[in-house]
Amino acid sequence: RIHINARNSKLDFSGMTGGTSVTFIGTPYDKSYGGVMGGLSHAHILGPKTYGTGANVVDGVLFTGDTTPSPANPFGSARSILSRCVVEGFNFGVTFWHRAYLTTLEHCEIYRNRVGVYSKGGGVDAYENVSILRGAVYNNDLNIYVEDGHVVCHGTSIDYANVVQMAIRGGSLLLNECHVEYTIAKSTYGAN
Question: Taking the complete model, does pTM exceed 0.70, yes or no?
Answer without folding.
Answer: yes
